Amino acid sequence: MEERRLISMLSDEAHEKFRQKIQAFARDVVAHRAGEIQQKEEFPMDIVKEMGRQGWMGLPIPKAYGGAGLDNLSYIIAVEEISRVSGCVGITLAAHTSLVVWPIYTHGNEAQKKKYLVPLARGEHIGSFGLTEANAGSDAGATETMAVYRDGRYVINGIKRFITNGTWADTVILTASHDRSLGVHGISAFIVEKGTPGFKTIRKEDKLGLRASDTAELGFEDCEVPEENLLGVKNEGFKVFMETLDGGRISIGALALGEAQGALDAAVDYVKERGLGRSQAVQAAIADMTMDVSAARHLIYHAARLKDLKLTVTLEGAMAKLYASEVSMRVSSRAIDIMGMEGLTPAYSPERFFRDAKLNEIGEGTSEIQRIVIARQVLGKR
Ligand code: CAA
Question: How does pLDDT run across 260-292, given as a tens digit for each residue?
Fold first, then answer.
């Protein structure tokens, strides 16, 4: 089968040339480290720095702000191809780019872009997105972190949980409420720099998969930031974060897609090596997996294309993320089934992809939340 037809007619030749570049990097720099970093829970800082040197930590950002000046579809292809060998590296890139680089680019003022966006997009700094709290997960508007204005500064108090890249973050954007009685309309977004007194990593979180991706609990105790660090308009931070998640969900879709494709690649290699391809049960499994991956890719590329047209992608981002995350679970599980007991061992990548895939159904909004978002887009808010 011609590879191009299995990829997508939604990407053009320039995207496919770029894909080959990323594939070479994934093969030569990332693949041989993927199992080891997962087992050792080692954050792949050297790989992140190398991606920065390649200009890939700000792929969809104009060159004037330190980015690569490519489109969102190119960025999505990069997350897909890197995640095809390592979900840990894929999510590090995705959280940094979609959840921090992008909102500072779209909502930051010129001074904030110069100070924060440029080093982030160049990969000199790492970014984190501080939304989730112990009592504000799916109900993200229930944030208990407070921001009190005092003499030209905001004093922030609160704890953010499950923050990707948290321990390593040089720049965190977070939500905090000025007045909880105003609900989501009392929430602003702020930029907090590493080293600001009162800002600290409380602990690194332990988790089932993506063990080389850093997930941390971050504390803010009388943490004072200058009023210039307000991101966007006061009291409109919830919208900034929701809009950011619309795009972020496409990149979680790409992460899931890459993992599913990686598991399928491993299953196909195994079937060929073991001469199992004559089994009709195996053929049926490979057929379903190929169809699942292809359908996920089309939803994701379609959403990325719409984002490149500057259209709202609330619906398409949620559909791409929901569908691809379920595909990543299904395909990695079936890859293990094909391999039997060997599939359960870290000698083969489906074991790692299966553990990693569960995050896709939870991070950046659970599958239940995606269904609510999709239904509200179709039916209107009840
Ligand atoms: N774009 C712009 N504005 C939006 C929006 C969007 N996508 N979604 C909502 N809003 C606006 C609404 O228009 C509304 O504004 P008005 O009141 O002015 O009309 C306001 O925000 C409130 O919207 P809702 O009433 O719909 O809000 P809600 O409280 O019912 O919550 C929700 C909506 C969809 C459930 C939301 O809370 C949500 O998405 N929850 C999931 C949170 C989530 O995804 N967390 C992931 C954490 S980050 C992460 O996991 C990263 C990682 O590191 C892996």
Answer: 999 999 999 999 999 999 999 999 999 999 999
Q: Tell whether the model's pLDDT for residue 1 goes beyond 60.
A: no
Q: Is 326 a catalytic residue?
A: no
| Cβ–ligand 1 contact at 103 (below 6 Å) | no
Number of alpha carbons in the 13 Å side-chain half-sphere of residue 57:
25
Amino acid of residue 379: L
Strands (E), the chain: 127-130, 146-150, 153-164, 171-177, 187-193, 199-204, 215-226, 230-231
- 239 pocket-lining for ligand 1 (C-beta < 6 Å): yes
- Residue located nearest, by CA, to atom 14 of ligand 1: 239
Q: Phi and psi at residue 355, in whole multiples of 5°?
A: -60, -40
Q: Which residue among 240, 242, 251, 378 is best mutated to probe the pocket of ligand 1, counting the most ligand atoms within 8 A of its Cβ?
A: 242
Q: Work out the burial of residue 156: count CB atoms within 10 Å of its CB; fewer than 13 is exposed, 13-18 middle, 19 or more buried.
A: buried
